[in-house]
Amino acid sequence: MPPVKWLLPLLQFFLANTFSGNVMAGETSSAEQIRIHGMVIDGGIVCPLLTTESGDRFPLMGIRKNEYPTGTWLDLTGKFIRFSTCQQGERAFSVETVKSTCDSGKRAR
Q: Which of 33, 67, 34 is nearest to 49 (CA)?
């Protein structure tokens, strides 16, 4: 039987992308929480978008699209994930907690 050279890369891809808690390599471990700070901006397709002071943009999983108005500064904890329902960007930020906001105009749930 000839060796199947394509099987190993396919198996590695499958195993690397099927376990929950998978994050971008070199950013965080699956158990490690990180903290980001940024402003809610327009442009999210399914999830709200956050832009950081350094200009990075991330869709936010775990917050509804209209939960915080555009222009609200959020201090968030969570982790980066590769696959999400946000349909935007290479990665999303899965929000576990909202530590603070700089706008008291949070919309009712």
A: 67
Strand pairing partners for 76? 36, 98
CA distance 59 to 35: 15
pLDDT band at 19 (very low <50, low <70, confident <90, very high): very low
Q: Is 16 helix (H, G, I), strand (E, B) or coil?
A: helix
The enclosing H or E element of 81 equals strand 73-81
Question: How many alpha carbons lie under 13 Å from residue 56 in its C-beta half-sphere?
Answer: 13
* 74: alpha, beta or left? (left if phi > 0; alpha if psi -120 to 50): beta
pTM, two decimal places? 0.63
Longest dimension (CA), the chain: 67
